[in-house]
């Protein structure tokens, strides 16, 4: 069966789609067969990213390794029972259609709580939660005491992941490998960075996730999206010499892929 990778949290602007696209493309470039689903039916950033890539590749006559993107299929409401959810069927059908064809399925969830997102989390073998490095985003995971920064308890999203873990346990599936990815780690504000890091370390032991470094804030990510490109494609489109920022960003991607510990993946991007 395909290994399911889900990028999710319940807050927009944390870099979920950028993270999903770079992981999916990196795996495709390594020779793995990768499927892709976007559950943000309204915005579809991940889906549009892949569509931009396909259009650019065709226009420039390039053969860029690309995930197999699938839209959620339509399901006849009459074909399901009165107490069953149509979105459960749509997601199940989409994954079933990819399962025999690919090694990995990368699913990008919306930045809000939806039924599709909830079900996707329960299907995740690897769950990646990108988090901007601030206490604003940290509040998604846990409540803290404002004066001491002591963790008081899990918050809404952490509780949803706990419920997904319970469902997997009841179904006899292996536990979710949950990785919280710290995005937009800036060189400044070292004191705040350390406080967030300490709080994440404390919380990770309580509710069971691993912490991995993600991507710094870089202009290149905004420039790549319209063409559907990733950091790994720059030389393919004629960039012979990478600047220091691009070299550092590629190393961040290597470090993230290494931290994920995906089955059968040797990091050599």
From TrEMBL:
Gene3D superfamilies: P-loop containing nucleotide triphosphate hydrolases (3.40.50.300). Transmembrane segments: none annotated. InterPro entries: DNA_Partitioning_ATPase (IPR050678), MipZ (IPR015223), P-loop_NTPase (IPR027417). This is ATPase. It comes from Pararhodobacter oceanensis. The lineage of its organism: Bacteria, Pseudomonadati, Pseudomonadota, Alphaproteobacteria, Rhodobacterales.
């Amino acid at each position: 069966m395909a290994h399911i990778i889900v990028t999710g949290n319940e807050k927009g602007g944390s870099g979920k789609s950028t993270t999903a696209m770079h992981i999916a493309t990196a795996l495709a470039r390594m020779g793995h067969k990768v499927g892709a689903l976007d559950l943000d039916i309204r915005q579809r950033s991940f889906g549009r990213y892949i569509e931009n890539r396909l259009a650019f590749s065709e226009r420039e006559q390039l053969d860029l390794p690309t995930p197999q993107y699938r839209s959620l299929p339509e399901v006849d409401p009459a074909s399901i029972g009165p107490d069953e959810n149509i979105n459960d069927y749509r997601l199940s059908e989409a994954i079933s259609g990819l399962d025999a064809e690919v090694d990995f399925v990368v699913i990008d969830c919306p930045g809000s709580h939806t039924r599709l997102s909830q079900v996707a989390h329960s299907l995740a073998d690897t769950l990646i939660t990108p988090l901007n490095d601030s206490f604003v985003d940290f509040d998604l995971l846990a409540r803290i005491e404002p004066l001491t920064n002591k963790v008081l308890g899990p918050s809404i999203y952490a509780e949803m992941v706990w419920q997904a873990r319970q469902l997997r346990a009841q179904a006899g599936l292996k536990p979710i490998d949950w990785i919280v990815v710290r995005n937009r780690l800036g060189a400044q504000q070292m004191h705040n960075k350390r406080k967030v890091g300490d709080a994440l370390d404390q919380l990770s032991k309580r509710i069971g996730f691993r912490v991995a470094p993600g991507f710094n804030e870089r202009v290149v990510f905004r420039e790549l999206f319209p063409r559907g490109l990733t950091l790994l494609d720059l030389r393919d489109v004629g960039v012979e010499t990478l600047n220091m920022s691009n070299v550092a960003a590629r190393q961040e991607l290597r470090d993230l892929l290494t931290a994920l510990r995906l089955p059968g993946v040797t990091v050599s991007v």
